[in-house]
Amino acid sequence: MSTVYDCSEPQERADGLAAAASSVRAGRLVVVPTDTVYGIGADAFDSTAVHSLLQAKGRGSDMPVGVLVGSWSTVDGLVLSVPTHARTLVEAFWPGDLSIVLPHAPSLAWDLGQTRGTVMLRMPLHPVALELLREVGPMAVSSANRSGQPAAGTAQQARDQLGDSVAVYLDGGESGDPVPSTIVDLTGDDPIVLREGAVTVADVSDALGVEVRTAR
């Protein structure tokens, strides 16, 4: 049985964050508000929990899950190295709606799907999400919807699709326009925008001082 917590009420928000943290540590799934759309999340280092996340969404490991972090410094422990372009984008757009793809540290014991040795990272600009991430550490997070269905802009929309597969729903109100994050691939010599979302290609190019191309 899942529980919904109204994060507009201070005590309920505190109770909800405590329940969500406990659930994540126990390998269960939670739904959190972000600055783009609602996300369904699990402990990034619990492969069973990540598999449950994929099952809840109805998708396979061929569509790997990204990772949300609660601070800039967390990135250093998750990736092989942090190139200059990555640091520039982090300083320009984090917390915010830009995701970066980098080779992950080979020592990490996680299974986020068929990532081919990479990880997609983002620091969201939402106080509830950030508070949870700073409590439990990096979380594997995907949009809180069944695969092929509309992204959830409210906790109720997420619950309508995911039901009791999620232990805790943190209701942070409407997310606004359900625009996904922009994804920038930094695994090669030149940055490539894999998906243009809330941050435009021009914004990325301006921040880096180079013309950035998009994936074909």
TrEMBL record:
The record's comment on protein family reads:
Belongs to the SUA5 family.
**Which keywords does this Swiss-Prot/TrEMBL entry list?**
ATP-binding, Cytoplasm, Nucleotide-binding, Nucleotidyltransferase, Transferase, tRNA processing
Which reaction(s) are listed as its catalytic activity? L-threonine + hydrogencarbonate + ATP = L-threonylcarbamoyladenylate + diphosphate + H2O
Family annotation (PANTHER family): SUA5, THREONYLCARBAMOYL-AMP SYNTHASE
State if Protein transport is listed as a keyword.
Answer: no
Q: Which GO terms describe its biological process?
A: regulation of translational fidelity; tRNA processing
Q: By its UniProt entry, which InterPro entries does this protein fall under? A: DHBP_synth_RibB-like_a/b_dom (IPR017945), Sua5-like_dom (IPR006070), TC-AMP_synthase_SUA5 (IPR050156)
Domain (YrdC-like): give its ranges. Answer: 14-199
Q: What is this protein called?
A: L-threonylcarbamoyladenylate synthase
Task: Specify whether Cytoplasm is a keyword of the entry.
Answer: yes
Q: Which GO terms describe its cellular component?
A: cytoplasm
Q: What is its EC number?
A: 2.7.7.87
Cited Gene3D superfamilies: DHBP synthase
**Entry's localization field:** Cytoplasm
Q: Which GO molecular function entries does the Swiss-Prot or TrEMBL record give?
A: ATP binding; double-stranded RNA binding; L-threonylcarbamoyladenylate synthase; tRNA binding
Q: Which PROSITE patterns match?
A: YRDC
Major subcellular site: cytoplasm
